[in-house]
Amino acid sequence: MEMYHVCRIAVAPLRKEPSDRSEIVSQLLFGDRVLLLEKTEKWCLVRTHHDQYEGWMDHKQLQWVTDLQYHDEQSYRYVTAVNFDNRLVDDAGTVYYLSPGSTLPFYEDGYCYLGESRFEVKTEPFIPNVANFATKVEATAKFFLNSPYLWGGRSFFGIDCSGFVQIVYKLLGLSLRRDASQQVEEGELVDFLASAKMGDLAFFDNEEGKIIHVGMMLSNDKIIHSAGKVRIDPIDNQGIYNLELDRYSHKLRVIKRFV
């Protein structure tokens, strides 16, 4: 079985079961690497390289690469920028529109490559650098404002709460795990809400104490998060206050700092 693959379309759903009707648990973006674990006629079970997440997908959305191409970390550093018009054009002249933070494998001199396929990159990509975190985090997060909420989503066209903070952090050179319940296990504890600063992540729980939501602090009293859409709401020691609903929508559990 050919083990190593890269996503070759703009956005590919990763599903819980091998069926088009199954729940989407995450998404692959163009250039994301996966390890093939199991294969049927149409479906394959994969594990993502960037966050070790498993799910089923249609293998027609993948491009096989060699062991060497898969593990060449230096060749997956360039990503699409924070703008609306990230275009690739393949050798047949077909255009792909990519979400910000999509990886451009083996990028060089205006082209990226998936196996034998070549794509002209029409917009200027960049290598994320965590040294720019403080200066770029606000604009990067706010770019996604009003993106619709989508369970399992990781793109500008639909994004969930943990997918939102994961992609914002990726664009700033930081790697986060996929789900809020996994993300909360990392980072350093911020003792008080008053000490929170821009770029910190706030986590929220339900009645059972399970972490069910995450957002990014813009200050110690404002948060940007994906709930219905990516939005900015006030936050206090109780949690997020939704002005439209005139009530608290999420109960604050803990704040973590990653930078």
TrEMBL record:
The keyword DNA-binding does not apply. InterPro entries: NLP_P60_dom (IPR000064), Papain-like_cys_pep_sf (IPR038765), Peptidase_C40 (IPR051202), SH3_16 (IPR041382). Keywords: Hydrolase, Protease, Thiol protease. It comes from the Bacteria. GO terms for molecular function: cysteine-type peptidase activity. The keyword Transmembrane does not apply. One of its GO terms (biological process) is proteolysis. Residues 130-259 form the NlpC/P60 domain. Belongs to the peptidase C40 family. This is Hydrolase. It comes from Pedobacter chitinilyticus.
